[in-house]
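Retro notes
What went well: the complex prediction finally ran end to end.
Inputs used:
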Amino acid sequence: DGGITQSPKYLFRKEGQNVTLSCEQNLNHDAMYWYRQDPGQGLRLIYYSQIVNDFQKGDIAEGYSVSREKKESFPLTVTSAQKNPTAFYLCASSSGQYNSPLHFGNGTRLTVT
Amino acid sequence: DAKTTQPPSMDCAEGRAANLPCNHSTISGNEYVYWYRQIHSQGPQYIIHGLKNNETNEMASLIITEDRKSSTLILPHATLRDTAVYYCIVRGGGSGGYQKVTFGTGTKLQVIP
């Protein structure tokens, strides 16, 4: 089945460590996205990528970094510079057409202590 | 992308129609209206989208006003499994701007037995 895979589902890290969240899609989609969700809040856009080797900052990019070396993969690194990294992280993709919906993974819940 | 406004919460009796409103008064001519829903701790699920005509699929109906400044998502016979947060977003435009997809805080729908 085609879809988006985020791993792991739960991730625990010590403060001061960088951590990379995985996002893989087999939908042959051009565009990919990372969102952050805090308890009781909506989704906030961190980074997005329209094509391979290109990506743009979203609304809350500080303390995060991404790469897009392959069409299928869009990993997100939460760096030690991110002040409040504990959150639910969601990855999504779309075909890139402006009238195409986003498809979401089931998220990674990151806890930093 | 145009901003959307939704009520923070709504209740609906099981078996009745759930009508979820969304205001998007600054929508531009080439922007689509999309609806997603998110069940607790999962990724958002695409429901339906439309440009200016009313749309219906197996999950819901979307009614867009003639001036396109607001829309209503209709779940015709709500079940307990429809309890979720529903997000209305607008998306479209040229020059790649459509790829910056932003979400608000949505409407929490509680279906009551």
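What we learned: The mean pLDDT of chain A is 93.
What to try next: split runs per interface for comparison.
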